[in-house]
Amino acid sequence: YQDDTYVYVYSEKQLDNLYIGITDMQGNVFHEETTTVLAGQYYAIPINTLPNGMYYLSIIQGSNYVIGWFSK
To answer: Could you say which of 40, 41, 57, 63 is the most buried, measured as most Cβ atoms within 10 Å of its Cβ?
Structure first.
C-alpha cells in the first residue's frame, strides 16, 4: 500500500534478493535496490522526494515479478 511518504511491500514469507525499482512513465529511474523483505513485515520505500506524477513499481525475485503503478 501507499501513503504520502512511502510505498510499502509486504510478504507473508521472507523474500531474499528482491529487486525493487521505481520509474516514471518516460522510463527515468528514481529508485532501485536489491534487498530482503522479512516475513510478516512491511518494507517501506520512500517516495516523498518524487515529483508528482505516475510511476511504475517493479518487484522482481528471480523469474517471479510484479509490476504495478502508483500516482503521487
So the answer is: 57
User: Mean pLDDT across the stretch 21-26?
Assistant: 97
Instruction: Provide the phi-psi class of 58: left if phi over 0, else alpha when psi is between -120 and 50, else beta.
Output: beta
pLDDT tens-digit readout, 38-64: 999 999 999 999 999 999 999 999 999
Q: What is the pTM of this model?
A: 0.89
N-terminal to C-terminal alpha carbon distance within the chain: 13
Q: Which residues pair with 6 in a beta bridge?
A: 46
Contact 7, 69 (CB under 8 A): no
